[in-house]
Amino acid sequence: MKGADAFRSREITAPLVEEIIRSLVRPVRIMEVCGTHTMSIFRHGIRSLLPAGITLLSGPGCPVCVTPASHIDAFVAAARLPQVTIATFGDLIRVPGSEGSLATARAAGARVEIVYSPMDALTLAQQEPERLVVFPAIGFETTAPTIAATLLQAERLGITNFLIIAAGKTMPQALEALLSDPELQVDGLLCPGHVSAIIGANAYRPLAEKYRLTCAVAGFEPADILAGLLSLIRQINEGRPRVDNCYTRAVTAQGNSKARALIDQVFAPADSEWRGLGIIPGSGLVLQERYRRFDGLHRLAIPLQPTREPKGCRCGDILKGRLLPPDCPLYGTACTPLLPIGPCMVSNEGTCAAYYRYSGHKESRHRQPETTN
Amino acid sequence: MCLAIPMQVIEIRGGDDPLFDPQVALVESDGIRKEIRLEMTDRIPEVGEYVIIHAGFAIRTLTVEDAEYNLSLMRQMAETLEQQGRLPGTPQ
Amino acid sequence: MKANSIISLDHGSGGLASQNLISGLFLKYLTCPQLRDLEDCAVLGEFAGRIAMSTDSYVVDPLFFPGGDIGALAVHGTINDLAMRGACPLALSLALIIEEGFPLADLERVIASVARCCEEAGVAIVTGDTKVVPRGKADGLFVNTTGIGIVSHRVEISGKRARVGDAVLISGTLADHGITIMSCQAGIAISGDITSDTQPLHRLVGALLEEDSGGVHVLRDPTRGGLATTLCEIARSSQVGIIIEEELLPIRPAVNTACEMIGLDPLYLANEGKCLIICEQDCADAVLQLIRRMPEGRDAALIGRVVEGREGQVSLTTRIGGSRLLEPLTGQPLPRIC
After folding, report:
1. What mean pLDDT value characterizes chain A?
2. CA separation (Å) from C179 to C61, C142, C205, C256, C334?
3. Fewer Cβ atoms within 10 Å of its own Cβ: the N or the C terminal residue of chain C?
4. Is 60 exceeded by the pLDDT of residue B87?
5. How many CB atoms lie under 10 A from the CB of residue C248?
6. Using one digit for the tens of pLDDT, what is the confidence trace for C142-192?
7. What per-residue string of b and e applies to C200-226 under the rule 16 or more CB within 10 Å gives b?
């Protein structure tokens, strides 16, 4: 839309930057929850425009990066079956499990296809009725309805060779788990725009009230992000935390009830493991019992093995801003952008990956790993 | 976390049979076209309106006015300094 | 499929089927006398100047795409690699590895395309080879071309020669080829006005060096890895910093939109008919005017400059005035959802 250009023009961003600089009266720490925010902040060089007093922490909001090794292992186990074709979002294929990724499985002969939409995976299943097409169902509230709608379409059409491995996650529970850590030092949350389009801006109100935390829902254009930051800084200055919706063209207070109904029809909440953060109660999406026939784990008899957390990975502390990447014993040695372990290194613009590439520090402060396995 | 961009609806197709001919939208931006699904959008868009699309689905319908309103909010945020009698560049 | 409509192992045997393929298909389109002689090698004669040589293999999927095909890529790619050192291309070889069962009609389309591109470029295929491998041992068709060219003695073009103060120019729009291939690949069906930019650049380079050889320091075609990766290579080889401006980058709106839809950065997508030119600031205007007059350079633009300090670093000044470092591509670009 021509409007999108307006949200990235200097005519609108420059005054916002000026006002941010003017408004900042003390150092603040702001967590951008969403991986797409992280990407956008990087891509538009937004950090370079902000005053030094603003520290941006990259939160756990990249669904690919927080998918734990246990789930990746299950995807890989499915991929290795001769009758299975994995149809996956592109960014998942390099994420490592405990023994390789979908990319390495493909190199070893598995059929792994990249799709843009879960609906494309369903089309693939229709085109190849002799194969089982398995879709790794990762994603947050924005993506879950697309998968639910696809599964319902598969049901209506009577397609039996389309399966998913449910690995979706929900944001409020993860934020609650992060914020309940008394050591977390964050003054404000830049809330994810497209998740909020589904769950509504009001979803953050309990957090704002309980933790007296400033929240701003923001879109992904430079002006959106700057407006969100400015809102947070003003809220911090005023000492009146609330939820400010800066992405009104996409987000309402209530969100998208139609999309939420799709999620509820197909999925049920469950405890879920997050890479680097461990088990977070109620933060996962598993298939409702009545859709069990679409459950790839069940149909293919693949067990979900608990992850053996890589010893020494400190992503949880890095996500919370307690440690810097070089404080992790794995940083730069066992964990690098080409062979990542934790979510902060898995994501291209994750805290550790960005630090590794741009800071010049390529080694851990720990000379040796704490222990060996 | 969720890459999504707005595109303009240029045609609403299908809808005669929810099973084999579900309603979909043809969207366009700068000459790029894509057919997208409408199951999860908050309301069915009209031709000429915009939808934010994610993974092949419209997640939200919006109008040019919605975008302009959002832009005006941002302008207001940045303009408060002038309302307070300060001008850009003058020290506080 | 009829037996006579596909490539069989016999076609690579060297026997009668091979000869029929050569005379019935290859020589129908490729008409250079040296090739028609079917000798073991081509003998080209005597030339004044230094000899440049380059080779490249082409494995694109799909083989046919909007704006070109594997044959066009194979001809243009090697011509362009020669041109990037200031060489005037003389002759090409063409070697094919074909998977058993490959449709003859597709092979004919590719060879016709090779012939057309050679004719347009004024460069001939002078020697060739064909191998057929059993089904499953290759993916349809692989093509290799090797080219030789002549570099005039006065020309000294190299990735090591970027100097502080130089201007950075690009001969046209970015990412057209990369996004076209991405959008063709299964699962990411988008339609619209995007086509590969595959084209030969030796005439553009020839005109450039004819006019002014001294001021042009670096020529590079930003193919795989895109503009960003190529600039990083130059910054490292020349031990200089490079700053480019997002606002100045020529990218077609359709390409930008397609990139945003699937989460790709156009600075990291391949170009197959574009040339990065690093030249002295003083001659930048003249170079731009010259290449904008040529069809292959009509969208040329000044995009940045070579700077002191920041050795080996490339940074981008974004549209909103921010700054970010550009790193070389790590791994293959993939569509994203986040």
Report:
1. 91
2. 13, 21, 25, 9, 11
3. N
4. no
5. 14
6. 999 999 999 987 778 999 999 999 999 999 999 999 999 998 875 667 788
7. bbbbbbbbbbeeeeebbbbbbbbbbbb
The greatest distance separating any two alpha carbons of chain B, rounded to the nearest whole angstrom, comes to 65
Provide the percentage of residues in chain C whose pLDDT is more than 90. Answer: 82
Better pLDDT: A326 or A368: A326
Report the distance separating Cα A320 and Cα A184, nearest Å: 6
Partners of B54 on chain C (C-beta within 8 Å) are: 337
**Between residues A141 and C189, which one has the greater pLDDT?**
A141
Residue A348 pLDDT exceeds 90: no
Look at residue C316 and give its three-state secondary structure.
Answer: strand
From chain C, the residues in CB contact with A91 under 8 A are 263, 334-338
- Within 8 A of C334 by CB-CB distance, chain A residues are 90-91, 93-94, 114
**Most C-contacting residue of A12, A39, A48 (CB-CB within 10 A), to test interface:** A48
3 state SS of C81? helix
Phi and psi at C214, nearest 5°, equal -70, -35
According to the model, what pLDDT value does residue C214 have?
Answer: 79
Quote the pLDDT of residue C52: 96
Q: Please name which of A42, A44, A98, A95 lies closest in space to residue A65, comparing C-alpha atoms.
A: A95
Cβ-proximal residues to C316 (8 Å cutoff; 6+ apart), any chain: A45, C243, C244, C245, C246, C267, C323, C324, C325, C326
What CA–CA distance (Å, rounded) separates C254 from C272? Answer: 18
Residues 6+ apart with CB under 8 A from B5: A4, B29, B52, B53, C257, C260, C261
Per DSSP, C60 falls in state: -
pTM of the full predicted structure? 0.93
Q: In what order do the strands lie in the sheet with C141-151?
A: C50-58, C141-151, C87-99, C124-133
Average pLDDT over residues C302-325: 95
Q: Backbone phi, then psi, for C304, in 5-degree steps?
A: 175, -165
Residue at token pair 């491995």: A165
On chain B, the residues whose CB falls within 8 A of the CB of C194 are 32
Q: Which residues pair with A169 in a beta bridge?
A: A284
Q: Which amino acid is at B54?
A: H
Residues C150, C148: Cα–Cα separation, whole Å:
7
Beta strand A188-192 with A28-34 is parallel
**Amino acid C213: pLDDT:** 60
C257-269 average pLDDT score: 93
Q: What pLDDT does A372 receive?
A: 39
What ipTM score was computed for the predicted complex, to two decimals?
A: 0.91
> A224 to chain B: nearest residue by CA?
B74
Pairing of strands A188-192, A214-218: parallel
Q: Which residue has the tokens 């001021």?
A: C215
Chains touching B (3+ CB pairs < 8 Å): A, C
Buried (b) or exposed (e) across C172-193, using 16+ Cβ within 10 A? bbbbbbbbbbbbbebbbbbebe
Q: Which of A191, A258, A279 is nearest to A227 (CA)?
A: A191
Matching residue, tokens 């490729």: C30
Q: Does B74 touch chain C (CB under 8 A)?
A: no
Q: How far apart are CA C159 and CA C275, in angstroms?
A: 13
Token pair of C169, please? 């120019």
Given pLDDT bands bounded at 50, 70 and 90, which one contains residue B82?
Answer: low
